[in-house]
Design a protein that fits this description.
Elements (H helix, E strand, L loop, with lengths): L6 H12 L6 H18 L3 E11 L4 E11 L4 E7 L6 H9 L4 E6 L12 H19 L7 E6 L4 E6 L1
Helix pairs in contact: 1-2, 3-4
Length: 162
């Protein structure tokens, strides 16, 4: 199976495109991940919400949870959804140090309001710089991964090959 034709990537994109965002952050986060989980399980994936992972910190081993981890016989995929302008550093770190082949990082993006001075191209580059920074510091396990960076509100996707 080609990673670019992965059902999880198509599923996340379609869910992103069709998702209504007028609800509170926690509701959107959980409903979005629950929808993806149901759809992937229907496609034959084994899916775990809040997948526990150990990852290296600056001075000690850290423990956290990846929002969604999906596996099939061909591919392992992890997904983190951060409802801010950027992916959090620890979200990137958990994904890059996981054993997933594909990482999907979803961030809220901009929809006007107080963030009008930002533009989505700038947000993409800032998120890309965060990924590069984490990869440089902790990224021994990140080689050969495909990283999809998704702007939730503006329905934009970028692909990074690490």
């Amino acid at each position: 199976m080609s990673i670019s034709n992965s059902p999880i990537v198509r599923n996340v994109l379609l869910t992103c495109m069709n998702f209504k965002t007028r609800k509170k952050e926690a509701w959107v986060h959980n409903a979005f991940l629950d929808k993806i989980k149901r759809d992937l399980e229907g496609s034959g994936f084994k899916v775990v919400r809040e997948y526990a992972i150990a990852y290296p910190g600056d001075y000690k081993q850290l423990y956290g949870k990846i929002d969604l981890y999906a596996s099939s016989k061909d591919i392992n995929v992890c997904l983190e959804f951060d409802f801010g302008l950027h992916l959090r550093y620890k979200s990137i770190q958990k994904m890059l140090t996981s054993n997933a082949h594909v990482c999907v990082g979803v961030y809220r993006g901009i929809n006007g309001g107080i963030f009008q001075t930002y533009n989505n191209k700038r947000l993409f580059f800032e998120n890309k710089e965060r990924i590069a920074s984490v990869k440089e510091q902790f990224g021994a396990g990140s080689l050969g991964k495909t990283f999809y960076l998704i702007n939730f509100l503006n329905k934009k996707i970028s692909v990074l090959h690490l």
